[in-house]
Specification:
Elements: E1 22-27, E2 41-45, H1 63-75, E3 79-85, H2 106-116, H3 118-130, E4 134-138, H4 148-154, E5 159-160, E6 170-171, E7 179-182, H5 209-223, H6 242-261, E8 273-274, E9 283-284, E10 292-293, E11 300-301, H7 312-318, H8 327-332, H9 337-349, E12 358-361, E13 368-373, E14 379-384, E15 399-404, E16 414-420, E17 427-434
Parallel strand pairs: 2-3, 3-4, 4-5, 7-12, 12-14
Antiparallel strand pairs: 1-17, 2-15, 6-7, 8-9, 10-11, 13-14, 15-16, 16-17
Helix pairs in contact: 1-3, 2-4
C-alpha cells in the first residue's frame, strides 16, 4: 500500500447494490474484437501513476506490459475510444524529503515523466497520431494540478475532459450521455480539491491533505521503515467545543491512524516535507499537519488545513458535487473503497437530476462491477477501472474496462466488461449489460 486511497484495501467490505453479476477468472483471447468492422468499444483505464523517477514510482515493472496492452488497442478495428480516468501522471507519490521539481517547474517535471516512461508515452502517442481511436484524459487527484498545457506537451492531440475548476472532470462519450466517466476523488474528504484551506500560506492552492499524506507515505516506502522513530502527540476530545471541535478530533484520529501505519524514521517536528508545488513554498513538518492542543481536553487547533472540518459543505459546492455528503460521513468512510462505490449510486443513479445509467470511477484501485436500480427502477451499472501500479496488495492490477455500445436491434445490450492483463494474459473478471 502506497497512497491514501489504497488504505481501503485493508478495509474492504462487500460491494453495495450488487446483484446478478457474472464473475470470471478465465483467459480471454481478444476482448478488443466484436467480430465485425464496427468501432463501438470504449476502453477505460485509470490510475497508471507514471512518475518522474522510477527509483520510487509506483509503476515500473508494469510499464512494458502496459506498452503491449496499448499496442493491442491501437491495432483493434473495433475500439472507438480510449479514456484515461485519472491519475495518469503522479505529482503526489514523491518522498517528502525530495524536491519534486528539482528547482525547476511543473513543465520540466512533466517532461521528466515523459522521458522516464518514454515507451508508454510513445504508445499513447501512436494511438493519438493514428487518428482512428479518440483518446481522452480525465483528471485524478495525483495529477490534480497538472495543467492542460503541460499534459499536452508530452501527449499532443490528447483530448481533455476538464471542469472549469482545476483538478476535476467528467466525461460522457459523444452520443452517449447515459455514460459518465470520472476519477471519483471529488467525493473524498482527503483527496478532493481544496481551494479554501491554506490560502494565507499558499495563495491559489487546491492541494488537499491527501497530498501531504502521500508525500509521507512515499517516504515510508523509500525508508522501508517498520519501527516508528516518533509517536503522534496525544489529543483528547474537547467536550465543550461543539461539533467543529468534535470533527477536528476525528481529523486527528485519521492522521494518527495513517502515521501509525506509514511509519518514518524522522521526528515529527523535523522540517522534512519539501514543497514548492501549487503555491506552497515552505518546508513543513509532520506536526504542521497534526491537530494539537495545549492542555488535556482543551481547544484543538491545527496549522495546515486550519478549519478544514468546517469547510466541507462549501468545498463540495466549489467541486460541483451534486448530492452533498455530510462531513461526518465523508470523514468516517474516507478510506473505504465501498464509500466510493456508494457515491456512484448516490450522485448518479439515485439522483433525479441525473440521466446516467453507466458510471465508471477509478481512484480506489479496487476493480469491480456493481449493478443497481436507479431512481426510476431501471438497471444501472457501476464499474471501477482499478489500477496499473506494480503492487496492489490483496487486489488485482493491470485492470481495464470495456464498454461495448449496443446496436440498433431491439434485443441488443450495452455490455460493460472488466478485465486484467496480469502476466500479459487477459483475464475476464466480471461483466454485465444494460439496454440504454
Amino acid at each position: 500500500m502506497r497512497t491514501f486511497e489504497k488504505i481501503s484495501s485493508l478495509l474492504l467490505f462487500a460491494g453495495l447494490f450488487t446483484f446478478c453479476n457474472k464473475t470470471f477468472s478465465q483467459p480471454v483471447s481478444d476482448p478488443f474484437s466484436n467480430g465485425s468492422n464496427e468501432r463501438n468499444m470504449i476502453v477505460v483505464i485509470s490510475d497508471i501513476h507514471l512518475g518522474a523517477d522510477l527509483a520510487y514510482a509506483e509503476t515500473n515493472k508494469n510499464l512494458k506490459p502496459l506498452e503491449k496492452f496499448l499496442e493491442r488497442i491501437r491495432l483493434s478495428p473495433n475500439v472507438k475510444e480510449l479514456v484515461i480516468a485519472g491519475d495518469l501522471l503522479d505529482e503526489w507519490f514523491v518522498p517528502a524529503t525530495t524536491d519534486t521539481y528539482q528547482g525547476k517547474d511543473q513543465a520540466d517535471f512533466v517532461r521528466r515523466i515523459g522521458i522516464a516512461n518514454k515507451g508508454v508515452i510513445a504508445a499513447f502517442n501512436r494511438i493519438i497520431q493514428d487518428g482512428k481511436i479518440s483518446v481522452t484524459y480525465v483528471p485524478g487527484n495525483h495529477d490534480l494540478t497538472i495543467s492542460a498545457e503541460n499534459l499536452a506537451s508530452i501527449l499532443p492531440g490528447i483530448k481533455q475532459a476538464r471542469d472549469k475548476e482545476l483538478g476535476l472532470g467528467t466525461y460522457s462519450p459523444a452520443d452517449h450521455p447515459e455514460i459518465a466517466i470520472e476519477h471519483g476523488h471529488r467525493y473524498n474528504f482527503f483527496c478532493a480539491p481544496d481551494p479554501i484551506s491554506n490560502q494565507d500560506i499558499a495563495p491559489g492552492t487546491i492541494m488537499p491533505p491527501g497530498y501531504f499524506f502521500t508525500r509521507i507515505a512515499a517516504l515510508h516506502v523509500v525508508q522501508n521503515c517498520r519501527t516508528p522513530h516518533d509517536s503522534v502527540p496525544p489529543v483528547t476530545k474537547n467536550n465543550s467545543g461543539g461539533v467543529s471541535q468534535n470533527l477536528l478530533f476525528g481529523y486527528w484520529k485519521l492522521w494518527r491512524a495513517t502515521l501509525n501505519l506509514f511509519r518514518i524514521t524522522n521526528n515529527f517536528d523535523e522540517k522534512i516535507i519539501l514543497t514548492k508545488v501549487n503555491g506552497f513554498t515552505g518546508t513543513y513538518s509532520v506536526k504542521d499537519l497534526l491537530p494539537f492542543q495545549a492542555s488535556t481536553g482543551g481547544l484543538i487547533d491545527v496549522k495546515l488545513y486550519k478549519g478544514i472540518q468546517d469547510s466541507w459543505e462549501q468545498r463540495q459546492t466549489l467541486n460541483n458535487v451534486a448530492v452533498k455528503i455530510p462531513v461526518a460521513e465523508a470523514m468516517r468512510y474516507v478510506a473505504e473503497a465501498t464509500e466510493m462505490d456508494k457515491q456512484a449510486s448516490v450522485q448518479y443513479f439515485l439522483n433525479p437530476k441525473s440521466d446516467k445509467r453507466i458510471v465508471v470511477f477509478g481512484h480506489t484501485h479496487d476493480a469491480k462491477i456493481n449493478t443497481s436500480n436507479n431512481y426510476k427502477g431501471q438497471k444501472s451499472i457501476y464499474a471501477n477501472s482499478g489500477t496499473w501500479i506494480d503492487h496492489n496488495p490483496k487486489l488485482t492490477t493491470m485492470n481495464f474496462v470495456i464498454i461495448t455500445i449496443q446496436n440498433a436491434e431491439a434485443t441488443s445490450q450495452t455490455w460493460v466488461k472488466l478485465y486484467n492483463f496480469e502476466r500479459e494474459v487477459i483475464t475476464k473478471m466480471a461483466e454485465n449489460s444494460v439496454r440504454l
